[in-house]
Specification:
The chain is α+β, with helices and mostly antiparallel strands and about 375 residues long. It has 11 helices and 17 strands. It has 2 domains: about 160 residues, no CATH class; about 190 residues, 3-Layer(aba) Sandwich (Rossmann fold). It is globular and about 55 Å long. The protein starts with a strand and ends in a 22-residue tail after the last strand. Bound molecules: S-adenosylmethionine. The site of S-adenosylmethionine has 20 residues, from helix 6. InterPro entries: SRR1-like (IPR012942).
Length: about 375
Amino acid sequence: MNDAMDEEYETIMNSTSQQSYTTWAVIQGALIDPRETETKEQAIAHIDTLYESGIPFFTKRAIRAFSEQLKTQTTPGDKIITKDLTGARIEWKVKVGKSIDLIFGEDRENRKECVYKEPGVGYSSRSSLKKSLDWYGVVDSAYEPLCLMYRICQIDSGSKTKEIIPYKDTRDCDTVARDFREKIQAWEESETCRRFQSILSSEVSSHDIKKIVGLACGSLALPNNEHAAYQTALLVTVRKWLKERDQNEDIFCYMQDPMNTSVDREVLADIGFEMIDDPRGWLEIDERSVVLSVAPNVPVKEIIADTARPAIVIWNRVKNDDKDSTDPDSPRVRKMMTGYKLHEFGDEETWSDVVIYTRESKAAPIPRENGTFQDSPLGDE
Ligand SMILES: C[S@@+](CC[C@H](N)C(=O)[O-])C[C@H]1O[C@@H](n2cnc3c(N)ncnc32)[C@H](O)[C@@H]1O
């Protein structure tokens, strides 16, 4: 599907992985409170100043408030209200059920009937807020890192009931479960898995850990799921290791990826993981968590740098630059990582530049009252 804008200038955006893609309509927010108009250059400087002042771009409080409104504001025309980084209120119109014709592929005549389905939260890092200024100018929501989106589904125009057409055929549960068991076995027999377990034993044997959160692993139910399978298998190893260490105490295990399907839900439940919807993952992650996130389409590192100090994070190596990416290594992320020790997988073929970071302090750092940390100087009070 081509990127396109509908008649009300909502952005149509594709979120892709090796296996599949999801299409989202990103809604434009409107200012409730008046604000002075700024030029693009002023807006860029403003975003940088806000960032450098330490104001968290993401807080659990704001994400929770957004999520609560998604549950109650469900009728077209309802509104969701957020507060941007300057304190100004923004409103987002609920548009669930809206239908739209979209162009698929290169053929501009090849229009398909689609509908706005479940709502979701969009997350903009500092760099994507600045990049958006190039695309849209200084719009009302220029200083708001959260936005409202709708998953777009194609509907079968020919059918009486206007059924939703799934993007890709997922495989049945037994096939997925069998395939995943084989991948777990291959992972568990690997030298990399043995090395990984010895890192756990030497580095976090007395860290207090109660949760495992897998973010953006992709779907096990789709074909060509190597990455999803290996990333999930590693989390299964963490769970087993913790269960053994803590003599079978409860460990809460979650997987969040909007691409997951009902087949994922079943297969994950069999291995003790609960499939959860965005934005619950961000709210669950805390100082007693292990987090894995590889090549996400959301700024996972920036969200976590503002909201938590997990015991272990497994994600792409944090580099010393702020290169444009969906998950940038911004200065706050780099600052957070100074409290962590880096360990290599030693297996670039499977894990590429993914590395393991263990938190240096065994004791969980205590967040401020507003959920932020000492190394981010200002809160959102
Ligand atoms: C490029 S894929 C990476 C998939 C997999 N980790 C890999 O290594 O191939 C990006 C993934 O981010 C997921 N994603 C997008 N928004 C997300 C969100 N809010 N929470 C969790 N995952 C998300 C997408 O659905 C997609 O599966």
